[in-house]
Amino acid sequence: MDPIKPKNLNYCPMILAFILYTCILLTIVWFTYKKNTSESDFVLGSRSLNFWVTAISAHASDMSAWIFMGYPSLIFLTGVSSAWIGFGLVIGMFLNWHFVAPRLRVMTEKLGSLTLSTFLENKYHDHTGFIRVTSGLICLLFFTFYVASSLVALGLVFDIVFNIPYGLGVAIGVVVAVLYTIFGGYITVAWTDLFQGLFLVTMIVLVPVVAFTKGGGVASIVQGAQIRDISLKLIPSFNFKEILTIIGLILSWGLGYVGQPHILTKFMGLKKPEEMYKSKYFGTTYQFFVVSAATFSAIVAIGFFKQGISNPELIFIEMTKDLFYPFAAGLVLCGIIAASISTMETQILVQASIISEDIYKRIFRPKAKTKELLWISRLAVITMAVVSFFIAFFKVSSIYNLVLYSWAGLGASFGPIILLSLYSRRINRHGAIAALLTGATVSALWTHINKILHLNIPEIIPAFALSICSAYLFSYLARNKFSPHSEH
Fold it and tell me: Cα 85–438–86 angle (5° rounding)?
């Protein structure tokens, strides 16, 4: 039999569900808009968030539509062994909460830094502005593709679920995200993330449970795996190559957390640093449920679509359409919209803060006033959203590949130097610059190196390692060549 193709339903009730969901978001915007009166409010909420809003907001900004579409599709296509990615995500984020979040929160406030770029600049006493501008440009590059991945997901949802053309769906996604980011800022993003985070975890747990009970249970899953010849084992075979593959899956995603600016900025907005441990356990528990449910969705889909499906990234959507009445299905699928927008708005906000703080103020208008910077931030929101729109409109890649490229690039660029800035005294300005450039360059080019050398090593692993090595090497060379007292 041919793979199952998407089905069309009565889309009017689904559109009504989406309108209801959007109205809730706009209500949150309305009540938080007046809280943003300064650049500090817009970029970091004046560090006023409590521990549970911080926790859910951090994880909601991480759980893009990739968790509904990209990650389940990989398990559906390759088998349960790909679920080691989920293990890497949970462990990676827990370690991020434990080792990075507390120190970053305290040190960024001590140095008066609103963005990661200004933190690195202040930490390493870079008066040239090179660190700030370089790190800002790296963020803009990789975030543009990251935002595009969320827009691709929104375009597919609107096309398949609401019968709205893909391009128009992408445009609607841009407008919704921009509206309540531009009028709300950090506080609005955090509170909408809270709502959307709770909403998406409910939906991603509900669908596979219903599908499991109505789709034949374990027997159906086993049958589907046999038909498509995929393994239901976490470790299909105990051999050296398989173990290396598993380690690669864990590290390729777990390592990336320490370098994701849209997540790290959530740590910086917590009101009381001593409550970080509460956010750690609350947030990790939340993430465990989301990742477990996404994994279960993929496993259930193996039995639900025994003959396969034309686009595996739509398995969650198609299960929902088959299991629920249109209005209820529309509400459930707003979980994907929640995941897309909650990630996208945070990333757009980070891009805006980079353009206003790290580029405009640092290079063009050092004495710019608060209101001027606030409007520059809002103009930057629109600009970066438009750029991402064009990337998404032409579908340059799949959701999974777009996220993986951006995740690895950001993780390898910022992860090493963030860790070193928090824990090492032997790194100086030259080492910081080398770490940023090495991580970004190696990550961006490693896909081509893999092809040339016939390797299958995730780009973040060599990029992360080489970034740390270059930081120590160039710091050492700078100390010995320029000044023996240049350490910080």
Answer: 5
d(CA 438, CA 475): 14
For residue 5, what is the DSSP state?
Answer: P
Contact 400, 70 (CB under 8 A): yes
Asked whether the whole model's pTM tops 0.85, one would answer no
Cβ atoms within 10 Å of 53's Cβ, excluding its own = 22
Give SS3 for 216.
coil
- Mapped onto helix, strand or coil, the DSSP state of residue 428 is coil
Are 217 and 305 a contacting pair, CB within 8 Å?
no
Q: Which residue has the tokens 């709300």?
A: 184
Question: 264 with 417: CB under 8 angstroms?
Answer: no
Beta-carbon count within 10 A of 207 CB = 26
Collapsed DSSP state (helix, strand, coil) of residue 9: coil
- Residues 385 and 170: beta-carbon distance below 8 Å: no
Give the separation between CA 375 and CA 217, rounded to whole angstroms.
Answer: 54
Please state, in angstroms and rounded to a whole number, the distance separating the CA atoms of residues 455 and 452: 8
Alpha-carbon span 206 to 3, nearest angstrom:
25
411, 263 in Cβ contact below 8 A?
no
Taking the C-alpha atoms of residue 71 and residue 291, their distance in angstroms, rounded to an integer, is 9
Whether 178 contacts 29, CB under 8 Å:
no
* CA distances (Å), origin 383, targets 113, 144, 183, 377, 388: 24, 11, 15, 10, 9
Query: pLDDT tens digits, the chain, 488 residues: what are they?
Result: 445 444 545 667 777 887 887 787 777 767 666 555 544 444 444 555 667 677 777 777 677 778 888 899 999 999 999 999 999 999 999 999 999 999 999 999 899 887 788 899 999 999 888 998 898 889 888 888 888 888 888 888 888 777 788 889 888 888 877 776 666 555 666 677 777 778 878 888 899 999 998 877 899 999 999 999 999 999 988 888 888 889 988 998 899 999 998 888 888 878 788 888 899 998 899 899 999 999 999 999 999 998 888 888 889 988 988 888 888 888 888 778 777 776 777 777 777 777 877 778 777 777 777 778 777 877 877 888 888 888 888 776 677 788 888 899 999 999 999 999 999 999 999 999 999 999 999 999 998 888 888 888 889 999 999 999 999 999 999 988 755 444 44
d(CA 441, CA 329): 43
81 vs 236: CA distance, rounded Å = 7
3-state SS, residue 485: coil
CA distances from 264 to 97, 115, 225, 245, 375 (A): 9, 9, 39, 28, 24
Amino acid of residue 165: P
Name the strand (E) or helix (H) holding 296.
helix 276-304
